[in-house]
Amino acid sequence: MKPLTRICIDLETLGTRTDAPVISIGAVLHNSGDPFRVGAFYASIDIQSACCHGRPDGDTIAWWLKQPDAARMALFDNPQPASTVIESFSNCLDGWLYQCEQEHREVAILANGPAFDLSILARQFRRILEKPLPWKYWQERDYRTERDALVRVLARMGGYTELPPRTGTNHNALDDAVWQVQVLETLQARIDAGIERMGAIVARSAAGEVTA
Questions:
Q1: How many domains does the chain fold into?
Q2: 8 A C-beta contact, residue 179 and residue 167
């Protein structure tokens, strides 16, 4: 089995439909089992430019106005034209995927609702770059589905199923992507530790060291 690398992607937008303007992109490249992230991408998009490539939604704009200052101010941290950000992100993804190919790693593209983030991103790639996303559809994974599957395994093992405390700023695209990877890695580490403990018990039992 090839070692797994996750590319976790999060978008912040001004709408909830596929044609929503994208106002920031965050992504993390992470090798499963490694405590350190291998790569990260973050960029905010000038709102006027974003709206040239999407249709804003009034309810979403009102929602943003109610969010914490830290989340809103990140959107104005060196904003760039949409075309610049999408091209930069495309180049970043190409580099990450090439690196994974050279290292013979399996790649999973993770989003907290791929039907939302990745569909919107696909539209931006088609509109601005006139090309598709640089991965196969079957590589896409849903963060919540993966998280819940790990929680169920832990529950069956009698393990600790609480999620780790939230880190970073909610609705900061990079912080959201980092936290999602942290959650999956924490849950997987608990499962691995539980399997190791059970293996040790079985080994001791086979050696006659465990008594009823």
A1: 1
A2: yes
